[in-house]
Specification:
Thiol Ester Dehydrase, Chain A; about 30% helix; about 170 residues; 6 strands; alpha+beta
């Protein structure tokens, strides 16, 4: 049995299961300002604490939704190890993405992962859909929820490797 076949069987048994939580990540004003600079999104609700406190219902600045989303890669790397025989992971996008609650500056977030589906998409690819919920520490409402599509790429099977135990 190939690495891909073993991974497919193992992942298929985990559909609907919680796969884990990432460590908490601080989203402070320095991180928000750096993101605003690189994306050229300088909207005051993100970068001007005094004005955001005075003119918004948020009591200060909030992180960009896309900053919160961009932390998903780190959350996944910290939580979801490569499968045996996997040589790379490809981000294939999202089927569903909703920003649920603003993330105030200075709060911590973490990712909660649940496997929703796994299919063989090519001879050496597994297509996996994982529900990602980005939780805000001390809040009952998440920052975002998304169905995230990733492709686990395996080395092509070689006839001489078939049947060998790894």
């Amino acid at each position: 049995m190939s690495d891909l076949e073993r991974a497919f069987a193992a992942q298929s048994r985990q559909i609907g299961m919680h796969l884990g939580h990432s460590p908490w990540i601080l989203v402070d004003q320095a991180r928000i300002d750096a993101f605003a600079k690189i994306t050229e999104d300088q909207q005051f609700i993100h970068v001007d604490p005094a004005r955001a406190q005075a003119e918004t219902p948020f009591d200060g600045t909030i992180a960009h939704g896309f900053l919160t989303l961009s932390m998903a890669s780190r959350m996944a790397q910290d939580t979801l190890p490569n499968l045996p025989g996997q040589v790379m992971n490809l981000n294939a996008g999202f089927d569903r993405l909703r920003f649920i609650s603003p993330l105030p500056s200075g709060q911590r977030i973490r990712g909660a992962f649940t496997l929703k589906e796994v299919t063989k998409s090519k001879a050496n690819h597994l297509r996996m859909v994982t529900e990602l919920t980005v939780e805000i520490e001390h809040s009952d409402t998440p920052a975002l929820v998304a169905d995230w599509i990733n492709i686990a790429v395996f080395s092509p099977a070689h006839p001489s490797n078939e049947g060998q135990q790894i």
